Amino acid sequence: xxxxxxxxxxxSMEKGAARKRRSKYIVIGIVVLLVxxxxxxxxxxxxxxxxxxxxxxxxxxxxxxxxxxxxKDPSVFKKDxxxxxxxYGMAYTPEGSLLPECGNSLENVIKxxxxxxxxTTRVRLYGADCNQTALVLEAIKQTKVEMEVFVGxxxxxxxxxxxxxxxxxxxxxxxxxxxxxxxxxxVGNEFMLNYLTERKSNDAQSAIARxxxxxxxxxxxxxxxxxxxLGLKKNIPVGNSDAGSFxxxxxxxxxxxxxxxxxxxxxxxxxxxAADWVTTFFEETNVQPAALLPxxxxxxxxxxxxxxxxxxxxxxxxxxxxxxxxGLQIFMxxxxxxxxxxxxxxxxxxxxxxxxxxxxxxxxxxxxxxFNAE
Length: 374
Prior knowledge:
By secondary structure, the protein is of the alpha/beta class.
């Protein structure tokens, strides 16, 4: 073959190879373009899908952020389907509300109010130390639950300083939070019981009792004056709480309401017979005498319940009464239904076990809660 023909052949081969390379590049380009178009379509589909979900209430990244913020809102909390607003009211003291420690906290009170709001619309407090009145009102404000509070001032017979300290704490709480969620101010808890017991007496109408009543009535009137000084548009009732058989007539005549502690456990009854015993005692010992007075104070059962155990065997039984979870269940099943049907106002005793009472008093004292300490 001549040199010219060899060159022409070489040129034809290179031209063919170039043509093949261009075809290859075109194919690759088309594939890349298709990939880009497909990816773009998928992305657009995802964006449209997310937009549709957002507009129809679905979850987007923004919704997740909202959910995270909502979880920090105390008014947004998970309800327990096994709990119901079956109780008229509940006796409650925020954990850690004792001087001098004052270990209570708003965080814990909020958790308590969230749980309590699933059981009742009313709570009663026993005292005002450790800022517990303000903590409860703040918790109600933040959780936005339906709840009213009977705030308390725990009066000491031998020292008026605690009364004054708590009166000022209650006053301050009202000035901050108002009275929308306050149902009453209770002055004294088992004051007459303690006063008479220390003087070895059990007669609530005796001369000794009248001495104690005079101290208590002075504090009741002082509380009324404190409330009047605030210029409140709402009338706040002022009451007293005591053991059912220790209400003094003079004290009853000076209050708007009375809270009576009525415990069948201490009457040596069975759990099965406890509900009837409580309602009969309350009607005969508290409701009927109060109705005879000119002021006709409204009477509530301040405490009634059943202990679930005792810290020592010697106090595990009280006559026919046995401290047990089964006993508490029986009493709740009978008393709550009967009292609700009869329209008896009561505060079930109590929200949770209070271990400090067990440490201080032993026996059944710390084990009356429908929830344990945790």
